[in-house]
Write a structure and sequence with these properties.
Blueprint (H helix, E strand, L loop, with lengths): L2 H6 L2 H17 L8 H14 L2 E6 L3 E8 L4 E7 L18 E3 L5 E3 L6 H17 L6 E8 L7 H7 L2 H4 L5 E11 L3 E3 L2 E4 L1 E10 L3 E2 L9 H19 L7 E9 L5 E2 L2 E10 L2 H21 L7 E8 L2 E3 L1 H15 L3 E3 L10 H7 L3 E9 L1 H10 L2 H4 L12 H20 L2
Parallel strand pairs: 3-6, 3-7, 7-18, 8-17
Antiparallel strand pairs: 1-2, 2-6, 4-5, 8-18, 9-16, 10-14, 10-15, 11-13, 12-14
Helix pairs in contact: 2-4, 2-13, 3-4, 4-13, 7-8, 9-13
Length: about 425
């Protein structure tokens, strides 16, 4: 029996425990930097497995270190936070949790992005490695990160001294459950996830009665013209082979039908894959906003604020090749090259902080029959729930087995070297 099979042979024994853990985490989601219950369950489990545990890093972050002789150091990361979404899956273990949000109002909370899968899979991998220490040599670091959805969790751990509190890894591993068939595993060298920049733009006009528009500088019209013009950045300023997305997600202005307001607020999001395109798009947005305001005779310059920024996730070529080969050997036809993804992550901050190569892959979580039927009808976009949907709920199996196995196989690709 080779090392991989020796370690994974324990999966059947712990499968029921992992399924119970997953359902518990799904029932009890927590928002970013408030993952106290989740972090305690993680810390307690790692200590039970014999890991040296440090918790409270960056607020609620946890690391567990298992030193097992001379060999490479592998860091594997899982994110823990949920989203302010009301679950609509109808599952018996669906979340009914609510929390008080920053604005003082009650918010529903749901694991709509699959971070409960990530936590469970890493716990499973950590347990299997601890149970089979004779099969590998090296140091395994299990890192559980808060607040990925807000884009500040990785940096919070770094700012709290992560690089001095954890051994420097030879590689950083991570995975994400995605709307592909359960059992699917997909790797991709180079660019994988996009950079994401969120902006809040306030344009200023001059308010007046709706019946006297000549007395006003209408910020609603100004905002409307900006929204339309922003759509030309991707279609007319970038090459057709350069992927990018500009989405206006929110416009707020005014309080009544017959009042022209003083200002309008536009919130938008930009997705790009390299620094040159990112800078080009952001400069184009600023140019369009300022010129449209000037053309409208705005009495005051617009305010352009960056409210969030996620770096691009770019996989190390050699690290990804090694993991892809290990996945092909273990998963066979279920191992694939995954498409470029427009989602975003902050975990590359961790690999950059340590100066270590990163490889990040996707696993499927959708019922295979549902996915196949949707593919047959050409209705995948309509019938397959995606991450951040109130209906997104990965099927428990084979999703968990795949996630545990993928993380374990990837780690052993280094420990076997």
């Amino acid at each position: 029996m080779d090392r991989t099979h020796a370690v994974l042979s324990g999966l059947a024994e712990i499968r029921s425990d992992l399924e119970s853990l997953y359902q518990d985490l799904h029932r009890h989601p927590e928002l970013g930097l408030r993952e106290h219950r989740t972090a305690k369950k993680v810390s307690d489990a790692l200590r039970d497995f014999g890991y040296e545990v440090t918790d409270g890093i960056g607020g609620t972050g946890v690391i567990g270190v298992l030193a097992n002789g001379d060999g490479p150091t592998v860091m594997a990361r899982a994110d823990m936070d949920a989203l302010p979404i009301r679950e609509q899956t109808g599952l018996p273990y669906a979340s009914t949790a609510t929390l008080i949000g920053p604005d003082g109002t009650e918010q529903p909370v749901m694991h709509a992005c699959g971070h409960d899968v990530h936590v469970t899979a890493l716990i499973g991998c950590a347990r299997l490695l601890a149970q089979a220490e004779d099969a590998w040599r090296g140091t395994f670091v299990a890192l559980f990160q808060p607040s990925e959805e807000n884009g500040d969790g990785a940096q919070a751990m770094i700012d709290d001294g992560l690089t001095a509190r954890a051994p420097r890894p030879d590689v950083v591993l991570a995975q994400h459950v995605l709307p592909y068939p359960a059992g699917y595993v997909g790797t991709r060298p180079g660019s994988f996830l996009s950079a994401a920049d969120s902006l809040r733009i306030t344009v200023h006009g001059r308010g007046a009665h709706g019946s006297m528009p000549q007395a006003a500088v209408d910020p609603v019209v100004m905002a409307a013209m900006i929204v339309v013009r922003l759509q030309t950045i991707v279609s007319r300023e970038l090459a057709a082979t350069t992927p990018a997305v500009v989405t206006v997600g929110s416009i707020h202005a005014g309080s009544g039908p017959n009042v022209i307001p003083d200002s309008a607020v536009i919130q938008l999001n930009v997705r790009t894959y390299d620094d040159a395109t990112r800078n080009q798009v952001l400069k184009a947005i600023e140019r369009i906003v300022r010129i449209e305001c000037e053309a409208s005779g705005a009495p005051k310059a617009p305010e352009i604020e960056k409210t969030a920024a996620f770096p691009p996730t770019v996989n190390d070529e050699e690290a990804t090749r090694r993991v892809a080969e290990a996945f092909a050997a273990h998963f066979g036809d279920d191992a694939h090259t995954i498409d470029l993804q427009t989602a975003s992550e902050d975990m590359s901050e961790l690999s950059l902080a340590f100066g270590a190569p990163l490889t990040y892959w996707g696993i499927g979580g959708i019922d295979a029959d549902l996915y196949a039927e949707a593919a047959k009808k050409g209705t995948i976009a309509q019938d397959v729930p995606v991450n951040h949907s109130p209906n997104f709920a990965p099927v428990i199996q084979p999703t968990l087995d795949t996630g545990v196995s993928a993380m374990t196989v990837a780690a052993l690709a280094w420990f076997d070297s």
